[in-house]
């Protein structure tokens, strides 16, 4: 029994660090995937706003619905310790995120609010897409300005 | 220094003066719009295009304008610059007919950094789907993304250059007893031939 205890104890002491690093890598990868998904949906809306894609109410609404659904995911929980741009070369997340978690959460809530309004805002014609896109993009910018590494 | 008395001479032509003051106002306003303005940066874009036109005008004017505006008149060689800098702390007006050699370097530096700012702004894509520079798709997404960083760097450089510019004007005013602002308003400057 004692041997087993020692084994468990030593294992539990030894594991955390590599597990931690793996957590950070996974979180960064997940964040990038999340942003890519946002960008695909935003790209559809901005294409319609610019007239590069023909306006289609159902398609616009589908894109906005996806954004709203994505915005209900708890993204801030993916910003785990050890995943800032200082800790990891793949990350563009500024350390300021971890110094201002409350403000960071508020900025994400701002995006959630904009995304919740988007499905209704993009209906009723191509002329409405621009304003809806500006609200959404403004929420992107609000957070990127302070918390994304500019490079 | 020659011992001839200083004469009041018309050095700055009206087009150059208008260009200078418009540029000063637009750069300050656009800098503030960039830092503190609305998220939808339409006005920032338009003022950027206006600044681009002023820069283009100033470069053309630097070749075809009146003598004091021409690059060939005021860009100093290294020796002229060193000679001027050696005497810069003397407590007397430079009475320079146009841009003095140190000022000339600052003119070129400011034109370059504003040019840098316009170009990086045109190429920038900050990934917000609303404030995308018109050349962003032409330069590719990697470069467009980097251009955002260059644009931020440029903003800091502009702040430094503007502060240096104001410090130099104060230095000439307080230390050298020479008013450089009034000539840029009226066009007339006290000048001593050298």
TrEMBL record, chain B:
It holds the Pfam family Ni_hydr_CYTB. One of its GO terms (cellular component) is plasma membrane. It is found in: Cell membrane. Residues 11-187 form the Cytochrome b561 bacterial/Ni-hydrogenase domain. Keywords: Cell membrane, Electron transport, Heme, Iron, Membrane, Metal-binding, Transmembrane, Transmembrane helix, Transport. GO terms for biological process: respiratory electron transport chain. The chain crosses the membrane at residues 15-33, 45-64, 102-122, 154-175. One of its GO terms (molecular function) is electron transfer activity. Its main location: membrane. It is a multi-pass membrane protein. Belongs to the HupC/HyaC/HydC family. This is Cytochrome b/b6 domain-containing protein. It comes from Paracoccus caeni.
């Amino acid at each position: 029994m004692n041997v087993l205890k020692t084994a468990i104890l030593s294992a539990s002491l030894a594991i955390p660090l590599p597990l931690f690093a793996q957590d950070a890598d996974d979180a960064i990868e997940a964040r990038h995937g999340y942003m890519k998904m946002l960008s695909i949906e935003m790209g559809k809306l901005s294409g319609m706003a610019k007239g590069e894609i023909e306006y289609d109410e159902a398609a616009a609404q589908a894109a906005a619905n996806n954004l709203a659904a994505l915005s209900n995911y708890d993204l801030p929980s993916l910003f785990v310790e050890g995943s800032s741009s200082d800790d990891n070369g793949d990350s563009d997340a500024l350390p300021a995120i971890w110094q201002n978690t409350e403000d960071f959460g508020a900025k994400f809530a701002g995006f959630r609010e904009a995304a919740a309004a988007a499905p209704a805002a993009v209906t009723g014609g191509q002329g409405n897409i621009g304003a809806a896109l500006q609200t959404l993009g403004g929420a992107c910018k609000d957070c990127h300005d302070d918390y994304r590494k500019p490079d | 220094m020659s011992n001839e008395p200083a004469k009041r001479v018309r050095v700055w032509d009206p087009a150059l003066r208008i260009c200078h003051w418009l540029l000063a106002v637009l750069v300050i306003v656009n800098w503030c719009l960039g830092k503190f303005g609305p998220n939808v940066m339409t006005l920032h874009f338009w003022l950027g295009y206006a600044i681009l036109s002023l820069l283009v005008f100033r470069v053309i004017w630097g070749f075809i304008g009146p003598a004091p505006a021409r690059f060939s008149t005021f860009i100093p060689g290294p020796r002229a610059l060193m000679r001027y800098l050696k005497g810069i702390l003397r407590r007397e007006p430079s009475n320079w007919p146009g841009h003095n050699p140190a000022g000339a370097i600052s003119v070129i530096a400011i034109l370059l950094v504003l040019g840098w700012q316009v170009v990086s702004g045109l190429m920038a894509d900050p990934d917000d789907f609303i404030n995308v520079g018109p050349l962003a798709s032409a330069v590719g997404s990697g470069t467009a993304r980097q251009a955002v960083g260059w644009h931020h760097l440029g903003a800091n450089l502009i702040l430094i250059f503007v502060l240096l510019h104001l410090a130099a004007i104060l230095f000439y005013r307080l230390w050298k007893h020479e008013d450089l602002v009034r000539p840029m308003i009226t066009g007339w400057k006290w000048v001593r031939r050298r």
